[in-house]
Amino acid sequence: MMVLSLITSVLFMCFQMPDNRRHHESCVLVKHTFADPDDSLEIINLVECQSPNGLTNWFSSDIKKSVCTSKQCKMLNVRLFWDGVGNYHHLELIDNEPLTKTDHTEFNADDYDKLNSILSDSLSVFRDLQMEDLVIEKRSDVDGVSGATSKSLTDYVVRDAVYTCYTLWHTVYGTSKNNIHALLKQRVDKDYLRKLFDRNDPVTDIWALNTMISNPEYAAPFFDKLIVKIASGNDITSSLALRAISPRNLNSEALQKKLANQISKADDLKKLDIIWKLNDCPVVYDAVIMQLLHDYQKGIITPAALQYVYKMISGKNMLNPDIAKKLQEFRTDKNRYIRDITDKLLITTEAKNQRQPRRTD
Question: Which of 7, 64, 80, 284 has its CA at a distance of 20 to 30 angstroms from the CA of residue 57?
């Protein structure tokens, strides 16, 4: 639960992340203070670098923790950074105080690289482990409190620093991250999502798209932007953008055609995804059906994909003479499979029509 948010500075120019990306704008530093749910006497401070337009550039938190029960063990004294949507970004040493290992030797450059890789993995093996799972033998001189590291973990940790890795990973993905997500959730609205899309950053796009998937009411005004993301060439954002489009928002011929137009730009799997999305619509317009039938004739979609197109054709669509004519052409297609599924569609539709009660006006 948030206790306090306080603007501590009005200007912080061009903070530079380690990957050399810059936010070329002024930055307001905002301090957020939270109670630690695991220790009522502890306070968690988050510093937020907020752009003038209200978007977040990054969050940071100073972490001072002990991973030891021995008085000989040093405290962890580091600053953790998350990006503007709560993904772990990097770690910095405070006052150049190094991290140490089993015998209190300092981490070297490779150790820091390995640690950063571990902290970047939200699905780390640490997620489902407890402290007691980390070691196989208790001793007082190994990594502060532990014995030999479990052999199953040796490839996943910095050698002789399993407790340090474990403690920092759970710090990155624990209460602070939950607080960041709570802060961002409070701000989500259509304007905030629009600003995120305007950044044209795949990382923030993914967060915005996942937010729309969880909150479908936000997606409708962004239909054209979602269409652009589908054709972006980025497989992750493309898939999420398609998921964010609700079939109930495909309620006009124009919107359905915009989506169908992306088929020619997509790979075979994405083409099927688009066809399945159209298949979920309560009504698919005649012009869209015709476009998909033409796509098969042009070799844009496969015979297997055409089978799913057939599933969206209703009896009402079949009354359209252009659709009926095209299906008659497919009865003589060179591909036997197409001939067979076309015959089945026509026979099934004719049988349904015959079962329909006639009106006696």
Answer: 64
